[in-house]
Design brief:
The structure is a homodimer.
Chain A lengths: L4 H7 L25 H4 L7 H16 L6 H13 L5 H11 L4 H22 L20 H20 L6 H18 L4 H9 L5 H23 L4 H22 L5 H20 L6 H7 L8
Helix pairs in contact in A: 3-5, 3-6, 4-6, 4-7, 5-6, 5-10, 5-13, 6-7, 6-10, 8-10, 9-10, 10-11, 11-12
Amino acid sequence: MAISLNLLQLHGNPSLPKFPNSNWLRPAVYFRAPARATVVMSQITPSYWAAINEDIDDHLRRVIIAKDPPAVYEPLGHFVFSAPRNSAAAMCIAACELVGGHRDQAMAAATALQLIYAATYTREYPPLTARGISNAAVVDRVYGPNIQLLTGVGIAPIGFEILAGSCDLSESGSERVRRVMVEMARAMGSEGWIGGQFKELEEVTAAEEVIEMTEGELHARGGACGAILGGGSEEEIEKMRKYGRIVGMVKGLSKKVFGGKENERKREKIKELKALAFKELEGFKGQKVDQMCNFFDFEGL
Amino acid sequence: MAISLNLLQLHGNPSLPKFPNSNWLRPAVYFRAPARATVVMSQITPSYWAAINEDIDDHLRRVIIAKDPPAVYEPLGHFVFSAPRNSAAAMCIAACELVGGHRDQAMAAATALQLIYAATYTREYPPLTARGISNAAVVDRVYGPNIQLLTGVGIAPIGFEILAGSCDLSESGSERVRRVMVEMARAMGSEGWIGGQFKELEEVTAAEEVIEMTEGELHARGGACGAILGGGSEEEIEKMRKYGRIVGMVKGLSKKVFGGKENERKREKIKELKALAFKELEGFKGQKVDQMCNFFDFEGL
């Protein structure tokens, strides 16, 4: 197993419980997240994508710090760090680098994408959410549904704050960030995740439609935002948006469990989507293109 | 009664039911909001503040339009337009004009503030919100709690989108908007409204503390954002922030119903706050200062 001590320290000990450790209560001590440890602990040698994930986690730990009062920041830390990693964040960094930008230019946006996802994930659990199903009896709860709901709502503005506070204050910096904020707001709102959740309420909606509006849209915006922040051309931005959307759909479909024949259809659809995706990478040059192609295969994403 | 036909048309007929009218279902037809009609229909002659409110309502109707699918945009319109008006939006416009800016420069931010408030208001109703109280039996519901909750969450990103998409694309325009986005995110999040709601969950918290974090903070950011967008100096921005905070506290305290002796203390506190507020207006010149002083007295705010 190719796991360095460094990685082990960074991602915590998987035997730790899924609760914030006591450090969380001490102001300005960063929270270590045990919940996502297994993802990097797989047998894959740390790669381009693992390094991106690590940088995003690191940035998240720097910006989401324990503050007073603990009644607010303890559940905040818990829910931010126990939400699964969403690969739209890595897509954002990779798209920035693909168009010739530096990783740091997209780091705040990538962190904001992960926070937007963590917010939706946190809001999913309480009884009486989108599904209208009370699953209070089956879900292991750390906090009451009122705390969980409030925290879920409170996570998203942090993403906007980090993003708005991130730029280099040059003319192009402010303008790019402003543009990225519009993209993020749409990924979150009724054209994106919330719209997808509304669709899910309709009984006749196909799972694919929901996945396109949620994971598809989040990854599409991730790709576009990365390309915007890395200084890509309009054509490159749109290619990264399309590539992102397809990647998001593949990721969403892969996670979704279908029964019988539907599963066969899902595998076909994924194959079809991958072929479409690679067409969007035509015209880009350099080593980064190969890495972008590997997006689908790295299981840590 | 000094009500022009124009005003009557703009604010709808108060005898209409509190539901979206059928126009809402037709794309690109603006929604007319009956719910807030009584506020402007009072016996006060339309003033500086009434005109500001009218402009904000008008802008809101231009940006929140009926679109497909109705399953998403019908509840969205309903909740945006039936939420009470929050005076932090008017504070934003007035602060912009006080520092020499034009109303249009602050209009998107004012609209975003009203949307942030409408979002919190919408999220308050479902059972299992901040208070943890199920009031399903007493609240008149138009939509199920899952729809109401999702809509509440979906309203806030629209505010960010409008704001981010609003600026004149000049260097100072982008930079001011970027700065305003940070203020807005904080007004919404754990340093603002959400933080106040968390405080409210603690039984020992004084009502004043909650009001300072919710209404106080929203109006403080309203004042600061208006001054930023109007091109005010740092000193002016901070004065408008302080003035806004006090106005917000007065507004919040006025709405809050206390019993017996507490009510007497509330009146004293409001008197004290007003005296403090007027000190923040020292140094400003022109007719707009008088109007700003009248903020407390116009009942439409």
